[in-house]
From TrEMBL:
It holds the Pfam family HTH_34. It comes from the Bacteria. It comes from Nocardioides flavescens. InterPro entries: WH-like_DNA-bd_sf, WH_DNA-bd_dom, WH_DNA-bd_sf. This is Winged helix DNA-binding domain-containing protein. Gene3D superfamilies: Winged helix-like DNA-binding domain superfamily/Winged helix DNA-binding domain (1.10.10.10). Residues 24-102 form the Winged helix DNA-binding domain. The lineage of its organism: Bacteria, Bacillati, Actinomycetota, Actinomycetes, Propionibacteriales.
């Protein structure tokens, strides 16, 4: 065995922890194609509750992967999500690792 083999982390260790949760990965995948999307659009496509979506998007925002914009107040308020450059790069790397693990 070479030193490289013994010191290299397994491929799965390269997966981004912020993107291993299926709902967060699905949200990032959606935003990577949509550019930006409002709360209702993302909620409907992921088929999750308001509170669950808020929790997942907060985690992505804290990771620096999503920007959130809120306009208006009360019932007429709109929340819009957009993937950041860091989010796009992390999603791209995560996909590459997954493809490598799957042998694609």
């Amino acid at each position: 065995m070479s030193d490289e083999t013994t010191t290299r982390a397994p491929g799965w260790a390269e997966l981004d922890p912020a993107l291993t949760a299926p709902k967060r990965l699905a949200a990032v995948a959606l935003l990577s194609r949509a550019g930006n999307a409002d709360f209702a659009f993302v909620r409907e496509h992921l088929q999750v509750s308001d509170s669950d979506l808020s929790k997942q998007m907060t985690a992505l925002q804290q990771a620096g992967y999503v920007d959130t914009t809120k306009t208006g107040r009360g019932r007429g308020a709109t929340t819009t999500f957009k993937l950041t450059r860091a989010g796009r790069a992390a999603y791209r790397r995560h996909r590459e690792v997954l493809q490598s693990l799957l042998g694609e």
